Amino acid sequence: MAEIFIDKLPRLINVSNLILGHFIEHLGMCINNGVWTYKKTEQTLMQPPLDRVRTELFERISSLRPPIIRYPGGCFSDTYHWKDGIGPRSSRPIRKNKAWGGFKSVFGLIKGFNIGPKEKNHFGTDEFLTLCEKLGAEKYININFGTGTPKEAAEWVEYTNGSLNTKYGKLRAKNGHPEPYNVKFWGIGNEIFGWWEKGHCKTGDIYGKKYLEFAKEMRKIDSNIKLLGVGWKSDWNRSFLRVAKGYVDYLTLHLYLPTINIISYLLGWRALPKNENVYYSMLNSPYLAEELILKTRQDIISTLGKNGLEQVKIAFDEWNIWYRWRQVYRADTPHYNLRDGLWTACMINTFIKQAETIGMANFAQMVNVLGMILTYDDKIIVNPNYLVFKMYSDVWLKDSSLLSVSVKCKNIISEQFANIPPIMKPVLDVAAMISRDKSKLTLFCVNKHLNENIDTCIKFSDSLNFTPENVIGYILTHDTPFAINSRENPNTIKVQKLNFVCNNDLFKYKFPAHSVVVFQFLGK
Ligand code: AHR
Ligand code: AHR
Question: Could you tell which of 191, 192, 196, 319 is best to mutate to test the pocket of ligand 2, judged by most ligand atoms within 8 Å of the CB?
Fold first, then answer.
């Protein structure tokens, strides 16, 4: 029988509530005809200023209780001038999408490959921030470092956070929102190390110097804002932090698996092969995220000293499975399947386990583009990765600390696939948190085995001082790990509720093959 043993950690480590964060970008169908519909629709719509947001979509997003949403990009942010997206919609300019529109001429021959439609700018700052307010989500804006200026970025901060005595605070009031939005999180640049990014910097040092010009202007307007700088490889991270320290609250990381090679994106798989090797390779691959986090953590500590993590945390602000270029237009060719849902759960578990270093994570992306939610003219469907977010957020504990989990079970040895090396990891992937008042304890579990159920005994250490009384649980599974929710059959995969009574401090459960299970134990 497998065993999960849950214990206190020697030191209290808080788990950030921002781990279950999201991201939306002006790319493909994420905002255009996703979050914001330009089409005539029979579906009910929200009230102004969200009058082109479908009520059903809002409800789907709202039921995830997103803790934070990042906007407007991604690559798009490094070309976006925010003043294009405020004021009366009829006078907002129509612009080419400079980050993504270029691909149109190359792929325009292939129907549906227009990933950068013209940007009408009807969804802009006020629409985004109102959406966040209605959802109760923190707001995270990525400013234009690529083609923008420090002055333009500072004016954006003033527009969102400035009082009515300021020029842009007044403009915000005129546009219908007298109260400041108090946007706390501001990213300066996106993937600025990459050749594909407008404003591309060759070294962390060059980036750091330019970053400081932005950071200083922005902090002059609001000294309370949290700033996010672009992280990458070690030498980049170290030289960037050396130059910009004191002005960096988060170092960002991005990871898309299984590959990041552009040739494979274009010519590679139409779908990931549905065989055992690829299945296990994918489900062990969150190990690569863990490695990246540990390496970056070392960069922070070795540059800023042993208290470095008190100053700078990692924001894993883009992560997902991405294997086919077309998924950035819309993610229903093909849909993410249950295996991808299991992968999503293993990634979130990784972030929880690295809570000391991870301050935030944002799934890329929320709607249509690599999306967990897909919008069709007549209906909205959710992928298994959405259902994982739903399960996790339903048992998430705000104000919680990390627990140590030791798992005794068999290992899965996965083979090389694409850029994922052979990896050996336990078949059960588990993370745990406890509420500050110790009244609730949540366990997040994935049984990665393709076809074996795993009989498990779950034990709590005495030192935890927690006696479970009741358990609620939710499970996500299906006969096959490759099942999907499609337009025709949108409810093939569903979250199911489990109910038990817990037998004091010992609890037995048989984890079904390829399942995600979450438990919340309620203390006495
Ligand atoms: O999420 C899609 C794109 O992937 C983002 O714009 C970019 O930052 C990343 O390369
Ligand atoms: O090959 C790099 C990819 O191409 C990046 O992830 C994406 O942003 C770019 O367009």
Answer: 196
